[in-house]
Amino acid sequence: MRKLARAGLAIIIAVTPAMAQTFDQPGAFAIEVSLENSPWPRLPMYRNAITSLEIVGDYAIGGTSADPGLSPYLFAASLSKRQLEMVFPLDEAVMGQRSIPGGFGRGPNGSLYAGTIPQSQGSSGHIIRVAVENHQLAVSDLGSPLPGEGVFTVIADAKRKMIYGLSYPSGRFFCFHIPDRKVTIYSETAPDHAVLKQLSEYVLKPDDYLSRRLVLDAEGRIYGSCPLGGIFRFDPDSQKIEIRRAVIPSVSGRRGIARVDAWAVASDGTLYGTNAADGQLFTLNPDNGKIVNLGKPAMMPRMKGIAFGRDGALYGVSGGRPGYTHVFTYRASDGFHDFGNPTCLMVAPGIGQGVPWRGFQIATVAASEDGRYIVMGEDEALSQLMVVPVSPGDM
What per-residue confidence (pLDDT) applies to 7? Predict the structure, then answer.
């Protein structure tokens, strides 16, 4: 079945994926979270691109991005029941926002924190707290860390009760102390005039060159990317930012458009990162700073999500518009396995029973807390969740 597509893309999208290898892992399933004019709790079209995703217990909690002029949603879907259970329009907590783009950070007491991008330039994005309380989504507004700017991405340190993030569009790094909402701002991560001039030659916008995600190492240090292929590290003890220029692995001649798409932390503390420009995977050793290029699972750019399963493999998605997503795994013992375009059986009431749903554009990947499931969120006009079970051994 082909999902709804925008006019002008329908012919290309309808024909091309039909020739693709499809990944149909036994036991995989889709959860319908979006459906226009539905009698069930669902997200409406063009307000449901799943750009933030985290698994808390049985719930897959998501935040969406909306088309211009529309407001996003938060939602929670039960993995055990395989159905959407809670929906929350963001404008009931914060008005004037269009996107929850940069993932969730896990704060104290299991709460999730996210940032928002406002509808209009010059308006303020906010930090929000999200939790499931009494079988309802509880969403609270913690205010704007940088008036006049949005919040592109965040991560939280529960021990320090801190939220760290990047502002939008300037790309400044900030620290937000949750108890008293005190904000400290650092400008080292923001591109200066000379860098902005170089970025303009590539016709890039902040959405294209700011670090899409941040990561926390075992020592509580925060990592992200800088424009033109750099990596920064913030040390909360010294309160200093260290920047390494032009170090993200990239294809020759394309280092200028390299930036981090996603991060994951291995059990031994190694950081795994992805280059959005070329779809490459790399490791960063936080102890010695060594970066190793692991290569590409598919001949496509973008690698928007990665997460570790309980079998020890790194699961991820490769590819994006104008192509389509492939699911892959990576193990140090045998490298990459490209499983092709994902297909999962949708069983909930809605569009239909037993529909094989294909994920052409996937923007987010998260693992359940026990590593038993890899959950993927689509970035479409009509976006759903796709859930892949992970066996204890090899896939």
Answer: 35
